[in-house]
Specification:
mainly alpha; two-stranded antiparallel sheet; 14 helices; 2% strand
């Protein structure tokens, strides 16, 4: 909205042209989302308490988590509301990428909402079944990928980019593009969902990865920087840094209340959506492999669950004391805050490695 106002008001006062600057709008979006989430936090917490939207803690989980029973959940509402409002205020709403990420945000938040609602209503950890989740996620992913492919204007938008190789760009057929995009989007959504098991464990890595993807979006949207780094130039991608800025602000604002010991949990409405948002941005930027490096913590958490299930079914034995792997470390006696901070540090290191691939080509 402010970008549009700037284009109108600049004829009255040239100084209003600042509202069209990408850097200004990114900072504005970040601060706006941060203030909204921090200021709305107490109201959201009280509202969720009044509605008795409280966390149900599984009895077969770590015993230390039983004390968290009754903590308000569905705090993803705080993240999503500040994210969407800030994006609508500061982003260029004429950019089709913005509407794709907003569409995915809203679509996956609805899935998360119904999943959380069923858990609260049933007073158990049983929400939507795995098959139902995958079905609904696949539907939204299919629409998103189909639109991205058939609305593309240049070959780079639908090509596969391999890190470390400046000329290794492979055009993709509609089927391969849509299928791989759906896989990345659904896998990313569920990976963050699995990781969200400790206070603040999922939100800060999501914020850090969102910031890194924002830098890539800006670089790809700037022809000079893109040429310097030998990465494809996507003229529309720069606008995604405004969305990523809003994601950073809303995520940090949520962490204000989610840090250990948490006053608020994000629930599936937050974790499923955050994973999907990061996934769709990586897909738009054609940097899925770089994203996989950044999201190494999410990947490891997901693999730990897969290994645990496979081992138990095939051998009748568990590899970890409990999966996902953060519970394994809890049961080995490591303090929850120590696990959280160490996973944050690992994410930061992986992001630096992933960003290095932009230059090492």
């Amino acid at each position: 909205m402010f970008e549009y106002l700037g284009s109108i008001l600049v004829s009255i006062e040239p100084g209003f042209d600042v509202l069209r600057y990408l850097t200004v709008r990114t900072i504005g979006g970040t601060i706006t989302a941060l203030l909204i989430s921090i200021l709305m936090g107490p109201f959201i917490i009280n509202f969720l308490k009044s509605m008795q939207f409280e966390q149900y803690v599984r009895e077969d989980g770590p015993k230390s988590h039983l004390k968290k029973t009754g903590t308000p959940t569905m705090g993803g509402l705080l993240i999503l509301s500040s994210l969407v409002i800030s994006t609508l205020l500061w982003a260029d709403l004429g950019n089709r990428y913005i509407w794709v990420v907003l569409g995915v945000t809203i679509g996956f938040s609805l899935i998360g909402f119904f999943d959380d609602f069923l858990k609260i209503r049933n007073k158990s950890s049983d929400g939507l079944s795995s098959k139902q989740k995958i079905l609904f996620q696949s539907f939204i992913a299919l629409i998103s990928m189909t639109y991205l492919y058939y609305s593309s204007e240049i070959l780079a938008e639908t090509s596969f980019i391999v890190p470390f190789f400046k000329d290794f760009i492979i055009p993709m057929s509609p089927f391969i593009f849509i299928f791989t995009g759906m896989f990345v989007l659904i896998a990313s959504s569920n990976a963050v969902n699995l990781t969200d098991g400790l206070d603040g464990l999922a939100i800060l890595p999501s914020v850090l990865i969102g910031g890194a993807l924002g830098l890539i979006a800006y670089a790809m949207g700037n022809e000079l920087i893109a040429d310097y780094l030998y990465i494809p130039h996507l003229p529309l991608s720069g606008e995604l840094i405004v969305f990523c800025g809003a994601l950073i602000g809303s995520g940090i604002g949520f962490l204000w209340y989610n840090t250990y010991p948490a006053q608020l949990f994000m629930g599936d409405i937050g974790s499923l959506t955050l994973g999907a948002v990061l996934g769709i941005i990586a897909i738009i930027l054609r940097h899925e492999l770089v994203f996989a490096i950044m999201a190494g913590v999410f990947v490891i958490e997901t693999l730990s669950v897969a290994v645990q299930i496979f081992s138990y079914k095939m051998r009748g034995k568990r590899v970890f004391l409990m999966a996902p792997i953060h519970h394994h470390y809890e049961l080995k006696g490591m303090a929850e805050p120590k696990i959280i901070v160490r996973f944050w540090i690992i994410t930061l290191v992986l992001i630096l490695i992933a960003l290095a691939t932009l230059k090492l080509r």
